[in-house]
Every structure is written in C-alpha cells, then in structure tokens.
Amino acid sequence: MKSTEIHIPTGVVQIRVSDASDGDFQVVSPAPDLSERRHAIASADWTWLKQVHGAHVVEVSNPGQHAGVEADGALTFRPSCPIAVTTADCAGVVLVAESGVAVVHAGWRGLVAGIVEKAAAQLLAAGGRPVRALVGPLIHPESYEFGGDDLEVVAKRYGPSVRGATADGGTALDMPAAVTAACQAAGWPTPDVGPCTSSPSYFSHRVRGDQGRQTVVAWIESDAS
C-alpha cells in the first residue's frame, strides 16, 4: 500500500492507494472482512460509492455519509471523513486543495462527462487554491486497445495527446494523458500518475478479467489530532 501525506492549512491530507497484496476492496460482492480491511486503514466509517461512470460528486460532512450512493466522486472539508473510490483499470484521482480533498473514479466516459472538472469546481467553491493531484494505478495505452469513434470523442475534449498505441501497434487510449489533461483543465498541477494495472501487483479487469478492486482513499487529519 502506498501512503502519502499532504499538508494543507486545515490539517494533513492522508492518502492510501492499495495494491493486490492488500486484498479486494470491491463493493459489488464485498468480502466478509471488507469492513475490517477498511478500518485497518482509516478507523472512521468510509464513504464508498456505487460508481456509474458519470459526473455526480457528493460532499461528505460526516463519516460514512452518502455511502453506497450512485456517484463517481466525493469531497470533504471535514476531518476524519474517509472518502474512497475503487478501480481495476479506471483512474482513481485525488485532488488536494487548501480547503479540502476530493477523490474521483474516472473512466473514459466519466472523463468525457467532466467528472474531474466538476469535483475540482466543487472543491474550489469553498475557497483556497489547488495544491496537488495524484492518480492511482490505471491502465496505460500499451494495454488498452480502444475503438476509433470513442477515441475521437475523448480526443475532441482533451486533445491529440490522448491517442496512443498498444504494445502490438493497435489504436489505444492513453488514459494517463487524458487524466493529466483533465487535471490541468481543472486548474491543478500535472498529477503524479500511478503504474499500469497490467502488472500483477494490481487488479485489472481488461488485462486479466480480475473481479477484485484496489482502492484510493483520502481523509483529513486535523492539526489537533
């Protein structure tokens, strides 16, 4: 599990990104020990989402608020409110601002729908500036053959950098480039982008048909804690 701490004026943003060795965090058919696994990372109740590749973002003010709702992003300005997304090729994006933190589940449909920019706008509406963006493990172009018509939809929104090639020369979507473009369009610095989910260290639905999911979870710890 990768751990990151980012200091903001209201406290410290804690970010955890799991890998396959940390176990399965899927919420569709959760493992019996999922709650225990979550609380070993962050002891407060988590806000997890029923992800639908859309652009709905919820604001969380209490631990566990909105858990299980249909959404692809969550943000919080309050301490001790873990917010999480799960992935197995899509991008788990964390946006840290001076006022709070957002997590986003971004597949290509969510990117085109503007999920990153919407979460960013809601985060910045509370005041403060962008601080940092991170992206968890996601599929890279060498492993992501992608249809031409859909690729043009993404390229129309984020530019030609999203066009990539697979390892054998096929047409591909460059998800790291697309997520980077979305973060920059939202006003954030170039994000730190995670490794490819083709590695057996991570779950990948597209490469191996994995049913498991890794998680990206973030929360704020107050200076007084």
Order of helices and strands: EEHEEEEEHHEHEEHEHE
Distance between the termini: 23 Å
Q: Would you count the extended β strands for me?
A: 12
Q: Which strand-content bin applies to the residues?
A: 25-35%
Under the CATH scheme, which class?
Alpha Beta
| Fraction in helix | 10-25%
- Tally of individual helices: 6
CATH superfamily: CNF1/YfiH-like putative cysteine hydrolases
Morphology call: globular
CATH architecture: 4-Layer Sandwich
SS content category? alpha+beta
- Biggest beta sheet summary: 6 strands, mixed
Radius of gyration: 16 Å
Number of domains: 1
Low-confidence stretches: none
CATH fold label = CNF1/YfiH-like putative cysteine hydrolases
Can you tell me about this structure?
This protein has 225 residues and is α+β, with helices and mostly antiparallel strands. The relative contact order is 0.22. The longest helix has 11 residues, at 148-158. A six-stranded mixed sheet has the order 3-4-7-6-8-11. The chain has a four-stranded antiparallel sheet with strand order 1-2-12-5, with no helix packed on it. 22% of the residues lie in helices and 28% in strands. The protein has six helices and twelve strands. It is globular, with a radius of gyration of 16 Å. The chain has one domain (2-140, 188-222): 4-Layer Sandwich (CNF1/YfiH-like putative cysteine hydrolases). The model has no long low-confidence stretch (mean pLDDT 96). The protein starts with a strand and ends with a strand. The protein has helices at 34-41, 108-113, 115-124, 148-158, 175-185, 205-208; strands spanning 2-8, 11-17, 57-60, 73-76, 83-87, 91-97, 101-106, 130-135, 163-165, 171-173, 192-193, 214-222.
